[in-house]
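Protocol step 4 of 6.
Sequence for Glycerophosphoryl diester phosphodiesterase membrane domain-containing protein (Sphingomonas xinjiangensis) entered exactly as in the expression construct, tag removed. Do not edit the line below.
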Amino acid sequence: MANIGAIVGGGFGLIRRRPGAVLAWGAIYALGTAALGYAQLRLAGTVDPTAATQWDVASLGRGLGVQIGFGLVSLILSSILSAAVFRATLWPEDRSGMASLRFGMDEVRLIGLTLILYVLGMAAGLVGGLGLTFVTTLVGFLFGGSPAMAGLFATLITMGLIGLILFLMVRLSVVYPLVLIRRRISLDASWDLTRGHFWSLLGAYVLMALATAALFFLAFLPFVGLGLRTGAYAPGGNWPLLLQQLQANHPQSLFAVIAATFVITALVSGIMLVVWGGWIASAARELLKRSEPAEAGVSDATGPEWSSR
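Step 5 output, structure tokens:
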């Protein structure tokens, strides 16, 4: 069984060892997402609302191209940061580059892996949706069109699909750090490596999810308090109106809110990148230590390239 304590401690240990890198990753992520969001808002502001209801193939094509472009930029940014976290966890003695950041074949492979998983996920979702529709229709026909029976079978099938998705996510959870370790994309390597460790990995990931939820709650608790005090959460209240009032009456307070939001977002983003990336990379490292190379198929990850990059 995988060591849950070692997996959970992997991300937090990285925070202790590389606090400066954590802040750098969080700041880069916060700045990148803020820049992408601002650019999207600027582009959205140039759209003519009177033409929004017209069927304009050219406009739809441009809009789709812009969204794909933003998605690719976001994917590149997240791949660079994720690779840095994996690298800092797997090879802590390697301090080359600023905060372990670089752009090379490891990052390109991570981008390719994400695109592969996205296509597979879309295909699986399409097949699953069609299968669910077919089965519920067939059950309704066999039971005389009973909505209750069709709903029952749909619920059971949906729960089964959720369980299957959870199983696949756990079994393939270490596929990303294995890209850096083995220097190639290999879905079956993660599948082989996690065999027999499903429940221990699931337990570790549940603890990770609970810790993440607690982190989000504590980080944004001041904003919840601000919203409650100002009535932003009351019926008829809203955050945009509150920000407009602050800008008109207390511009310095608005700047303080924006600055605090950015700082907290950067900190939370950095910690989230570290804990999730560190946990997953630690899981891969623990499983590699416990697996026989011949069985796990990772003999190339236990030699000199595993101990040092």
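Step 6, annotate. Residues 4-42+59-104+174-182+194-307 form one domain.
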